[in-house]
Amino acid sequence: MAAITEEELARALERTLVLRGKMTEPDVRPVARMVLGYFGHEDSVLDNKLSSDDRDRFYQLEEEGLLTSEEEDATVSRGKTWRIHYWLLKKDRIRLVGETRDTPPSDEAGALYREIADSAWSRSEGRGIPPAPPS
Q1: Could you read off the pLDDT of 79-119 as tens digits, one per residue?
Q2: 76 in helix, strand or coil?
Q3: Which of 22, 94, 104, 111 might form a disulfide with 17, Cβ 3.0–4.6 angstroms?
Q4: Angle at 37 between CA 65 and CA 21, to 5 degrees
Q5: What pTM was computed for the model?
Q6: CA neighbours closer than 13 Å in the CB half-sphere of residue 38
């Protein structure tokens, strides 16, 4: 499968992290460049190549389904086992999210509560519970 472009990853970031308020618009391009800088034209990157801050960002992208991780056990000299952690680009997901023209999720509950008059939220002594609305 062809390599992910900066444009594709940037669109996917806009439609996931920016849309959910987890990233600002000005951060999209630098983050896309940082991620692709690690991957280059490869599909995987070793976790131990990441800086601590970049690893945190990779975990954030994993939560959005844009990256995934794998572990592999390797036997080294004298029978020791090392666990190797890889990060993988989810190219199909990145492209799908980048192509989707979703609108931001609606705040139906918030809109419903905003429609209720302020007087409905206050209670006076002795009034009791208001009657249920007619059905």
Answers
A1: 899 999 999 999 999 999 988 665 445 456 666 667 777 77
A2: coil
A3: 22
A4: 40
A5: 0.69
A6: 22
Closest CA to 17 of 67, 70, 88: 67
Q: Chain centroid to CA 51: how far? A: 19
Residues 33 and 54: their CA atoms lie apart, in Å, by: 12
Cα–Cα distance, 88 to 6 (Å, whole number)? 16
**Which residues of the chain form beta strands (DSSP E)?**
44-46, 67-75, 81-89
Domains detected in the chain: 6-102 (1.10.10)
The whole-angstrom separation of Cα 89 and Cα 43 is 6
Can you tell me the distance from the alpha carbon of 50 to that of 27, in angstroms, rounded to the nearest whole number? 18
Distance CA 34, CA 23 (A): 14
| Nearest one of 54, 56, 63, 52 to 17, comparing CA atoms | 63
The single-letter DSSP state of residue 102 is P
